[in-house]
Amino acid sequence: MPTPVNPIDEPPSTLTDPREMLDAYLDYYRGVVLHKLDGLGETELRTTRLPSGWTPLELLHHLTHVERRWLRWGFLGEPVDAPWGDRGPDDRWHVPEDLPPAEVRARFEEQCAWSRRTVAGVPLDRRARPGGRFATEAEAPALGWILFHLLQEYARHAGQLDVVRELADGTVGE
After folding, report:
1. To bridge 134 with a disulfide, which of 38, 41, 113, 139 should be the other Cys (CB 3.0-4.6 Å)?
2. How confident is the model at residue 172 (pLDDT cuts 50, 70, 90)?
3. Does 131 map to a domain?
4. pLDDT tens digit string along 97-130?
5. Range of the structural domain that residue 86 is part of
6. Cross-strand partners of 93
């Protein structure tokens, strides 16, 4: 029988402001992803359990780059070194062998903190600046669209980690 995991608290049902809910759910899923990785040793973090071949550590590294691509390079239109730095030569997610899991996690947490500060108080209808990920104003989505895209990305990957964690050690739950 699988071992249940203590759940992370979902944002309160008393939230009614859409922006507060969006920010709260983004943080919730960021936390869920980290929680699902807690307790896995380096071998498990670097071991794939799926035919597609990605590992839990690669997924965390990918999410760091996703935030960076969508907010720094996308929304702010800033130049970014290696925006696709989560991909290896075979175009699959990749984490260098010499990058310890603690460093991958620290980079993720740093990026999430930067993302929170960057979008705090910015109206959801503000369009991304052209020049980074988006060449023209016509291509540039609004911040609200970008944040909802990030939310669905986190929700999807958290679900994938549910399966991977259960296959790794039988742990199930949030």
Report:
1. 139
2. confident
3. yes
4. 999 999 999 999 999 999 999 999 999 999 999 9
5. 17-172
6. 87
Q: State how many domains the chain has.
A: 1
The answer to whether residue 161 sits within a structural domain is yes
SS3 172: strand
Q: Could you tell me the CATH number of the domain that includes residue 74?
A: 1.20.120.450
Q: What is the DSSP letter of 104?
A: H
Task: Using alpha carbons, select from 132, 171, 168 the residue that is nearest to residue 59.
Answer: 168
Q: At what angle do helices 18-37 and 101-119 cross, to 10 degrees?
A: 180
In whole angstroms, what is the distance from residue 110 CA to residue 170 CA? Answer: 30
- Stated pTM of the model: 0.93
Q: How far apart are CA 97 and CA 46, in angstroms?
A: 9
Q: What is the pLDDT of residues 27-51, one digit of tens each?
A: 999 999 999 999 999 999 999 999 9
CA distances from 157 to 19, 72, 125 (A): 22, 21, 26
Report yes or no on 5 lying in a domain: no
